[in-house]
Design brief:
The complex is a heterodimer of chains A (about 250) and B (about 325).
Chain A lengths: L3 E12 L2 E12 L3 E5 L6 H9 L6 E6 L2 E2 L5 H7 L1 E4 L11 H10 L16 H13 L15 H14 L4 E5 L7 H15 L3 E5 L3 H7 L2 E6 L2 E6 L1 H6 L1 H8 L9
Parallel strand pairs in A: 3-8, 3-9, 6-7, 7-8
Antiparallel strand pairs in A: 1-2, 1-4, 4-5, 9-10
Helix pairs in contact in A: 3-4, 3-5, 4-5
Chain B lengths: L1 H22 L2 H24 L10 H14 L8 H23 L5 H20 L9 E2 L6 E3 L2 E4 L4 H24 L1 H18 L4 H27 L1 E2 L6 H14 L4 H18 L2 H4 L6 H15 L3 H10 L1
Antiparallel strand pairs in B: 1-4, 2-3
Helix pairs in contact in B: 1-6, 2-6, 2-8, 2-9, 2-10, 3-4, 3-5, 3-8, 4-8, 6-7, 7-8, 9-10, 9-13, 10-12, 10-13
Classes of the chains: A alpha/beta (about 250), B mainly alpha (about 325).
Chain lengths: ~250, ~325
């Protein structure tokens, strides 16, 4: 069995009376994609926010590298090796693509007190920036401004920035949203390549992509886990079929 | 290419400024000295407002604190030494920034504006109402600090030309220092924080530390400006700590264009020269009394017509 990198156990997040995430447990393993599916409002993004530190859980633990991440600030979690890409594109619009990724890579080589060497001249950091832009297929546009990119390209940049922080666990929140077929293919291929050396959690509505890459699937509805298992098991699960996937032999469009 | 052009323009401006006291009348040399000092003040605030995204309405606290430290450190009728009084003033500002920064940086946006203002007003009343400050009349400085090495006087700052060059040297040093700083990893991180702090944290930056460092540096440089200003005017009073002073320097930064160091300096230049011209009774007669109104209209016009300030105008003409 592949090495378990991150274990979330009994995570709950309440907003007042509403339990956006209710007693959710899951494991992320090295070399595997764990896909999280479910209708809008199921709590998938909230769960991601708990894992990345954007929100503190009301209760539950997140075990990673021998410590409990629950409630740690996002910068600590990021530095420990849990990276995320955002569902709503969250990039530095006035900067060039290269500068976006350079800034992301710089976070791993923080020497803030070296204030007299030019940032742009740091070759190690530049190399990482180029590498990740190349990986997502944006290298030719590295000097363009992020604001000038198409929506799909901004999504690609979003992923590149996450990769530039060299995470071991990748939390990807709808990486394919708004991408054309060509871009989607690039990113699906990228996810497959990354999986060998990462533990990936993937939230995605594109079921073709999900079933193409996922090793494990968790279905969430109303903040709770409806079913969890291998894609075959979940596909065969009668409750899931009724509630979510539709009846006709896995007509998986949502 | 663009870099060399900029460097040439910079050297030309510096050279022109350096030669100015040789041709200018004493009054104008002193006026330009004030411009240079306020340019340091404005650049220090721009580091915070234009590059870190923190709009402070209490920057006069540091400006005034440094002045008061100089006044208190000086022997009653003799000249203090620059070697001791300047580091003391800067250290006081850095310490004040470190302590208040830990608190004010927990807020952002309009709350940050209010809390910085509140701390500056607290300091205002400390120096206004306690024996520390000499009340609303303030404290006189009978002699400018001495710059001596052993018994040899290196610079006679009582000479208005020498003092001008001294202020110019300080301004140029601060400009180059900040320029260099902003091009470094640290500077890039500050600009990232200004643009999208949430994402910076997700990328692993402990943004609070960066903001605190920026706040302390900004306060210390404002202290340098305040030290020089107290030296030039020969007295300190609570006015220099007041919110008028904080507001004035913020207007200079906005006028010149936030997020450009030369813009902040340009803003200081235009603000002070206009203030001087519009309040000149020989030119404007009874209208001169109403100079704040005219200056205010000018500021409003710039804010409405030039969202990037006067520095943005230069950029537009370059194409």
């Amino acid at each position: 069995m592949a090495e378990v990198l991150l274990v979330a156990s009994h995570l709950t997040k309440r907003f007042g009376g509403l339990a956006a995430v209710n007693d959710v447990s899951l494991e992320l393993r090295l070399g595997q994609v764990h896909a999280l599916i479910g209708p809008n409002g199921a709590g998938k993004s909230t769960l991601t926010n708990l894992l990345s530190g954007d929100l503190a859980p009301t209760s539950g633990q997140i075990h990673y590298a021998g410590i409990d991440l629950a409630g740690l600030p996002p910068e600590r979690i990021s530095c420990l090796g849990v990276g995320r890409s955002y569902q709503k594109t969250n990039i530095f619009l006035p900067f060039t693509l290269h500068e976006n990724c350079r800034l992301a890579a710089q976070s791993r080589a923080q020497r803030p007190w070296r204030v007299f060497s030019r940032a742009a001249a740091n070759e190690d950091i530049n190399a990482v920036a180029h590498e990740v832009l190349d990986a997502v297929g944006l290298a030719p546009r590295c000097e363009a401004l992020a604001a000038s990119l198409s929506h799909g390209e901004q999504r690609q940049l979003e992923i590149a920035m996450c990769l530039a922080t060299r995470p071991k666990v990748l939390l990807m929140d709808e990486p394919l949203a708004g991408m054309g077929p060509q871009e989607s293919q690039t990113i699906v291929a990228l996810i497959q390549r990354l999986t060998a050396s990462h533990a990936v959690m993937l939230i995605e509505h594109d079921m073709d992509a999900v079933f193409a890459v996922a090793h494990r699937l968790t279905v969430m509805v109303n903040g709770e886990v409806l079913a969890s298992g291998t894609p075959q098991e979940v596909r065969a699960n009668a409750v899931v079929q009724q509630a979510y996937l539709g009846d006709e032999h896995g007509a998986l469009d949502v | 290419m663009k870099q060399t052009k900029l460097a040439v323009a910079l050297i030309a401006i510096l050279l022109a400024l350096a030669l100015f006291p040789l041709v200018g009348e004493k009054f104008y040399v002193q006026l330009m000295t004030k411009v240079l000092i306020m340019a340091i003040f404005a650049m220090s605030l721009d580091l915070l407002v234009g590059y870190t995204g923190l709009v402070s309405l209490g920057h006069a606290a540091f400006f005034g604190l440094a002045g008061y430290v100089l006044a208190r450190a000086a022997p009653q009728y003799e000249a203090p030494s620059l070697w001791t009084s300047l580091p003391l003033a800067l250290a006081a500002c850095a310490a004040f920034a470190a302590v208040t920064g830990l608190l004010v940086l927990r807020t952002s946006g309009v709350y940050f504006i209010m809390v910085t203002l509140a701390f500056a007003q607290m300091l205002f009343f400390v120096f206004h109402d306690t024996p520390l400050g000499g009340g609303s009349d303030g404290i006189y400085l009978y002699a400018k600090p001495e710059v001596k090495l052993g018994d040899a006087v290196l610079l006679n700052l009582e000479d208005s030309q020498v003092f001008y060059w001294f202020a110019l040297g300080a301004m140029a040093t601060v400009y180059l220092f900040l320029q260099r700083l902003l091009a470094s990893n640290f500077g890039r991180a500050l600009i990232g924080i200004k643009t999208n702090e949430h994402r910076m944290r997700a990328l692993g930056y402990a943004t609070f530390r960066y903001k605190l460092a920026s706040y302390i540096l900004s306060g210390t440089l404002a202290g340098l400006a305040g030290y020089l200003a107290a030296m030039q005017f020969g007295f300190v009073n609570p006015e220099i700590l007041g919110w008028h002073t904080s507001g004035g320097v913020l207007v200079m930064v906005i006028l010149g264009g936030m997020g450009t160091l030369h813009g902040a300096a340009l803003g200081a230049f235009v603000f002070i020269l206009l203030q001087e011209a519009l309040s000149n009774e020989a030119w404007l007669g009874p209208l001169a009394k109403h100079w704040p109104l005219a200056l205010g209209l000018f500021v409003i016009a710039v804010a409405l017509l030039l969202p990037r300030g006067l520095a943005g105008l230069a950029r537009r003409h370059r194409g």
